[in-house]
Amino acid sequence: MKFGVFDHLDAGTVPLGQLYENRLQLIEAYDRSGIYGYHLAEHHSTPLGLAASPGIFLSAIAQRTKTIKFGPLVYLLPFYHPIRLIEEVAMLDQMSGGRFQLGVGRGVSPFETSFYGLDFQETQGIYHEAFQLLMKGLTSEELTFEGKHYTFKDVPMLLRPVQKPHPPLWYGLNLPQNAAWPAANDVNVVIIGLRPVIKDCVDAYLAERKKLGKTGAVPHIGISKHVVVADTDQEAMRLARRAYLGWRESFIWLFKRFNSQPRIIGVLPPTFDELMAIGNGVAGSPTTVRNWIADEVAATGINYFCPWLAFGDLTVAESLRSLELFSREVMPAFD
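Above: the chain's sequence. Below: its structure in token form.
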């Protein structure tokens, strides 16, 4: 059982430059605390995600940490020129000494997609071609490709990653019917959802591996939840209730502008009390959080827990205390 951290890098209550610096200080603490991986979302034109160019922020992480693995969860492949992204991935893996983790995806927001001049109905096809190009470019000395959306001929691939054949792949999973591809290709996954869906996704992932006769180490099969740890249940709930309100407002902000709702709004109710009631987050003392995670592991079969530890208006001091308790009194129970 390993532990990571998922981060939207959503808007807080401090100026933007200070928000970036605060988060980098927190990631340095993740590194010292034995957190396995830091996973950064990519969003555009929304306060939900202010790392609109994740590679820039990740390059700072490469320089300010020593052991933690890190990467996007996920790069929105249709939003990038493939050669530009191939080169960026190679640079980040080199700059970090081989710690980069390569999350890939299509993008789920039709509004963000439209801002980039893309037709949401076409991005699935663009994503599949871009992924093929990314894998080919990271493993070839020369790139030639002819598809519906991209064509390249004899492009030299001079930038190469440290990790061979390429950095480990990560994918966001929320439906069991989508588990076959990551399972077949040894792709690590992080699932956002409630216990029954998580269990179905894990079962589908493992069943596909069994069907294919895969007997090696199982990739990371993780989940992400809002988590706040404090010295008492009461203090943790006080912090979580306050911070979650701001995070959720950022989550729905762009959709409200278009009189719409996110598809997964049902699992992210208006208050943290309601979130806890449906089992989609936890705030409490180390004992409360430890027991909650143990129940989640037993019920779903996950081997990776990747919570939000910083969100909304949580201060650096509050997040650092939550991390301290989490790493010292929660994580060791799962060694």
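The domain at 2-334 is CATH 3.20.20.30 (TIM Barrel).
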